[in-house]
Amino acid sequence: MSRRATRLVAATVAMLGLSPAFAPAASAGSPVPSCKEGYFCLFEGPHQTGRVLLAEDAHIATDGFNLRELDDIEPPIFPRSARNPLPNDFGCIVRLNDRPHFAGDEQEVDGFGNHELDGRRVGSLTPDCG
């Protein structure tokens, strides 16, 4: 019986080791990307996952912000999600154009917080308040 019990224990330990609940944190998936507070960030993956493709300091103050325009992002990027630090009471959006110099089709990131994008090319970006 002891040989059978030993095999049962070994099999149980092996199965627990392969279980996601008991897997080491390093194998739990890709690390959470870093987007500093106050930065406008574009991410490679959905739900703010994957590499940070762009991180721009929005220089937010109580009376405004200074997110610089990027008129020719090279190489172009293809983000799937964004994090917008601009407070809603500023009444601003960030326009993401698929071509340099604010040309071509655009996606809008409006409102504070996390946003999903469709993975289209981004060749330029500009904040738009008004």
UniProtKB/TrEMBL annotation:
Keywords: Signal. It comes from the Bacteria. Residues 1-25 form the signal peptide. This is Peptidase inhibitor family I36. It comes from Longimycelium tulufanense.
